[in-house]
Design goal:
The complex is a heterodimer of chains A (350) and B (63).
Chain A: E1 5-12, E2 29-32, H1 38-45, E3 49-57, H2 59-64, H3 66-80, E4 84-87, H4 94-109, E5 114-118, H5 123-129, E6 134-137, H6 145-160, H7 168-171, H8 188-200, E7 230-235, E8 239-241, E9 257-260, E10 272-274, H9 282-286, H10 294-302, E11 308-315, H11 323-340, E12 344-346
Parallel strand pairs in A: 1-3, 1-4, 4-5, 5-6, 7-11, 7-12
Antiparallel strand pairs in A: 2-3, 8-10, 9-11
Helix pairs in contact in A: 1-6, 3-4, 4-5, 5-11
Chain B: H1 2-5, E1 9-11, H2 27-45, E2 53-55
Parallel strand pairs in B: 1-2
């Protein structure tokens, strides 16, 4: 009989039953056995695997102390030596998706097979798929818990036993940006002609390889009436408080900062620096509203054309930024905006 | 650039080093100019789009 696999499960504080947003600051902790959705997961794993420990962390705490939490978790995983690490499922919860992705990535790097699950639109999914993680595709909410756990458990057992994994479509995970060569039994010329004929006859066909360029993001539905909408400003122009307190670099940024604009009717020259190395910052320094139009946006607020401006301005530097870094930055900011209830975002871009 | 990367709603503004600025105008005139672009943002947010779409601002031509 195959030996039972040892599993460590990671969930957030909400799924650990610790409460709602107020529990988001729960520091990372570990307990024996299962908690929350781990119970269903344990049922699905049956006697083929045992969840020996559950690690729980509040989304807000993880977000604030990501590196420290990752180190803490890896120390525990190295001591426990599980056969598989399972995180989530996170569904559409952005911060949770990012924490699951990060921890699975760290586990994989330490040689521990990892599986997580989240909705395709979770900010964590794009980012961590690109790192070739196994992310099971889930529904948008915990309505899909049963199906998510089913697929996660099946995939986790295969990974734990180093069994062959099928295609993304067959196993139910999001495509991992990995290309595998398989024999098809028919010459390519034949397959190409058949595909061309099908396309010409307007019959359905399936591309063998889809070229991934910039991902197509379906446009969200329009908001014709913004009078009750909370709007946020997110900019890559590198507009920072004087002295650049968060040390945003002039190029190749890998982090972002948030600055309070509470009570400000406009951006005041002298209170802001412009550190983007890709353009002449003179005009921006003379009048920062030329880059982040706070004065005009406050006007819209006063007129009731937008509900309210979020009291924080989110900033990074979009000069020679790597696509992966920018995706991560965008995902992290999006997660915060989602949590704050922002409905529309204005992105001054340079 | 923005259309290539896949941003869906794009308001074409001023020059890249001052997208919401026109330094050759006097400050009061520049503010009015900026407000036109900001209002166009509202239009863009309220318009259904299927793909990256650029929204321009109609500016009076000074004769």
């Amino acid at each position: 009989m195959t030996q039972s696999l040892r599993v460590v499960h990671f969930i957030n504080a909400f799924y650990g039953g610790m409460g709602g947003e107020e529990a988001a600051q729960t520091p990372v902790q570990i307990q024996d056995g299962v908690a929350g959705p781990g119970r269903l997961l344990a049922q699905r794993l049956g006697d083929q695997a045992e969840i020996v420990a559950t690690i729980i962390c509040g989304d807000g705490y993880f977000s604030a102390y990501e590196d420290e939490v990752a180190d803490w978790v890896m120390t525990r995983l190295q001591a426990l030596r599980p056969d598989v690490f399972i995180a989530g499922p996170a569904f559409r919860s952005g911060r949770y998706g990012l924490s699951c992705g990060r921890l699975c990535l760290e586990a994989e790097r330490a040689g521990i097979p990892a599986v997580t699950g989240m909705h395709v639109e979770n900010p964590g999914s794009d980012l961590y798929r690109g790192e070739h993680l196994y992310i099971v595709a889930t529904e948008a909410s915990a309505v899909g818990m049963s199906q998510a756990i089913e697929r996660i458990a099946a995939l986790a057992l295969k990974r734990g036993r180093s069994e062959a994994i099928g295609t993304a479509a067959a196993e139910g995970f999001l495509p991992r940006a990995v290309r595998r060569t398989v024999p098809s039994g028919r010459p390519a010329a034949e397959r190409a002609v058949e595909m061309a004929l099908r396309k010409w006859r307007q019959e359905p066909y399936t591309s063998e390889i889809t070229i991934e360029t910039f991902e197509v993001i379906p446009p969200p539905s329009p908001l014709p009436d913004l009078s009750t909408t909370l709007c946020a400003i997110v900019t890559e122009s590198g507009l920072v408080r004087t002295g650049n307190p968060d040390r945003l670099p002039s190029a190749g940024a890998t982090h972002w900062a948030a600055y309070s604009i509470a009570g400000m009717h406009r951006l005041v020259p002298g209170e802001w620096d412009a550190v983007h190395g890709g353009f002449d910052n003179t005009a921006a320094l003379q009048d920062p509203n030329r880059v982040v139009p706070l004065d005009a946006l406050r006007d819209l607020e006063r007129q009731g054309k937008i509900g309210r401006l979020l009291d924080e301005l989110f900033v990074t530097v979009g000069n020679m930024g790597s696509l992966n870094a920018m995706k991560r930055i965008g995902a992290e900011i999006a997660a915060v905006l989602q949590q704050r209830g922002v409905g529309a975002v204005i992105v001054p871009a340079t | 650039m923005a259309t290539r990367v896949g941003a869906n709603r794009i308001v074409r503004g001023g020059q890249f080093h001052h997208p919401f600025g026109k330094p050759d105008l006097l400050p009061d005139e520049e503010y009015v100019w900026r407000c036109k672009f900001v209002h166009r943002i509202l239009d863009a947010l309220g318009t259904p789009v299927q793909q990256p779409t650029v929204f321009d601002v109609e500016l009076e031509v000074l004769v």
